[in-house]
Specification:
The protein has helices spanning 14-19, 21-26, 78-91, 105-115, 135-139, 155-167, 181-189, 201-212, 231-240, 267-276, 279-292, 301-320, 330-335, 344-352, 363-376, 487-490, 502-512, and strands at 4-7, 10-13, 53-59, 96-102, 122-127, 145-149, 173-176, 243-248, 252-257, 260-266, 295-296, 325-328, 356-359, 381-388, 393-398, 415-420, 425-431, 438-445, 450-461, 470-476, 494-498, 515-518. With 520 residues, it is of the alpha/beta class. Helix 9 crosses helix 15, helix 10 (267-276) packs across helix 12 and helix 12 (301-320) crosses helix 14.
Length: 520
């Protein structure tokens, strides 16, 4: 991709940005090359008596985001980049920082090629959009690399890519996953002891991170009686369940998972059901959503009614195929003009009715929701998690969430109706989920014959405008450092239930011959 970025009212290509000192200076980066005296607490001179030079790479699509993705379309990264560059200049006056943009592997390779002549000592790589593959190439430099998650923006790629480094014991790559700038500063300080010994950098940053992560202490939570079905009854009901999956325009039947039948249907059938939905009935549903919500932000009543028609269409398809679960490749369908409303509010309503609506045609997460909803009578909440060590939290983020987390007869929590976050279109849900309770977060993998899970106490709902609308913040039970390790094997999605499901998870796994992986 050869997009352009605008700096000081002039257009520069990314490659020109990489090689142009003036562009770096426009971002507030000190470009001085003269030797320095070792007088600052952060001072450093290498064996040639030259200043420590650090390349700061911001891995992103573009300075102003031009597509739907985390954090959101139209997001301006320039203030954040300027803030970080200013922090580096202020906190490390005796270092030299060179600021660079990169979008992909090709950009990263160009940077590495250039740096053979630039005498770069170390790298900082900010993951500012999720899936830009830049850090992988930079890590191969064998120089110290500080890998930083830009929260609610690059978090998916950060978790997946960083867990690959951890699994491969990439000793020259350390990481920061914190919303607190002080933790970033502590990570940068680790360069002092590691430039001559890059293989010590990961352990140095781990020590710094552990020092600044709050202690878990004794975690207690509200009482929550959970009744579960026997394993035999659960398995019997799973065979009576059925998942309808809408991925593309191809229809076929898939092999059952955990005994659950799975049928793939076409976008055309889904769109036809939306077209056939009674608009008067849709208006009634839209009025209910409007009246029950705490507030509506940037969503018209026409869009509410459109979403309600999509919900009614999904219900009619579930009835026609005698199914209790539906999952839709919503973004692919919407951007491909195959469907004309987002299913977010429809999934919300289905979950509150005891049915299953699952995002992104994610079969594993849908099976997880069906299995444990059947067992507990409670809905699952599918999410894209984020980890913030400064608060010792994992944040479960998505634009779809129920507001009856204790089952159809349980108490309802407040919710807001907002646009789908990444593209600011359609209608989605910001559910202010109950706090103080123990949650169990799961994912199943039929190929591995494994169930992964962790538990956490719900402590907050984050209203941050970046990334998905619902953001349940929770304090993990156990080792938060271990929580960084499995994302490369399991992907980004997890499914969260309210209640203590640890024993039921092990009982179900034992009954079907699967293995349980505890990720904290």
């Amino acid at each position: 991709m050869n997009t352009k970025v605008e700096i000081d009212s002039r257009n520069f290509s990314r490659r020109k940005f990489i090689s142009t000192c003036a562009a770096c200076a426009a971002y507030g980066v000190c470009m001085a090359k003269s030797p320095i005296e070792v007088s600052s607490s952060h001072s450093y001179t290498n064996i040639k008596n030259e200043k420590l030079r650090i390349r700061v790479i911001y891995s992103l699509h573009n300075i102003v985001q031009d597509r739907p993705d985390w954090p959101n379309i139209g997001f301006d990264f320039k203030p954040s980049i300027e803030k970080y560059n200013s922090v580096f200049k202020k906190e490390f006056p005796s270092y030299e920082f060179i600021s660079t943009l990169a979008s992909n592997q090709e950009d990263a390779e160009s940077i590495i090629a250039q740096d053979k002549n630039e005498k770069i000592d170390a790298y900082i790589v900010f993951q500012m959009n999720c899936w830009n593959r830049v850090v992988q190439t930079i890590a191969k430099s064998k120089k110290p690399v500080l890998y930083v998650d830009f929260k609610y923006a690059g978090s998916g790629g950060f978790l997946v890519y960083n867990s690959e480094f951890l699994r491969n014991k990439q000793s020259n790559v350390g990481f920061v996953s914190s919303s607190r700038v002080e933790d970033l500063i502590e990570g940068v300080k680790c360069f002092e002891s590691s430039v001559q010994n890059p293989d010590h950098f990961a352990s140095a940053t781990t020590m710094a991170r552990l020092k600044s992560t709050p202690s878990s202490g004794q975690i207690s939570w509200k009482s929550d009686k959970l009744d579960v079905l026997s394993m035999d009854e659960t398995k019997r009901r799973l065979k009576e369940s059925k998942i309808l999956a809408f991925r593309d325009q191809n229809a076929h039947t898939a092999e059952p998972i955990m005994g659950i039948p799975i049928e793939f249907l076409t976008f055309a059938e889904l769109n036809k059901a939306w077209e056939a939905a009674n608009r008067d009935e849709a208006k009634v549903v839209a009025e209910k959503w409007k009246n029950n919500s705490s507030k509506i932000v940037d969503v018209s009543f026409d869009e509410l009614q459109n979403s309600a028609a999509f919900y009614l269409g999904m219900k009619s398809i579930l009835k026609k195929h005698q199914a209790n679960a539906i999952t839709v490749n919503c973004l692919g369908g919407f951007y491909g003009n195959h469907i004309h409303a987002y299913p977010c509010l429809g999934f919300h309503e289905l979950a509150n009715e005891g049915l299953i609506g699952a995002c992104e045609c994610d079969i594993r997460s849908t099976v997880t929701m069906v299995a444990f909803s059947t067992m507990t009578g409670r809905p699952g909440y599918i999410s894209d998690p984020v980890i913030d060590t400064s608060k010792r939290q994992i944040i479960y983020a998505h634009c779809v969430a129920p507001n009856k987390m204790f089952g159809t007869e349980g108490a309802a929590n407040p919710y807001n109706i907002m646009t789908h976050s990444e593209d600011r279109q359609g209608a989605a849900v910001q559910s202010m989920l109950p706090l103080g309770y123990l949650t169990t977060t799961l994912e199943i993998d039929n190929d591995k014959k494994e169930i992964i899970f962790h538990q956490a106490k719900a402590v907050d709902n984050d209203p941050d405008d970046r990334a998905c609308r619902t953001k349940l913040c929770a304090e993990p039970i156990g080792d938060i450092e271990k929580l960084f390790t499995e994302w490369d094997r399991w992907g980004w999605h997890r499914v969260t239930f309210y209640g203590d499901l640890k024993k039921p998870v092990y009982d179900l796994a034992d009954s079907i011959g699967w293995r349980v992986i505890e990720e904290t």
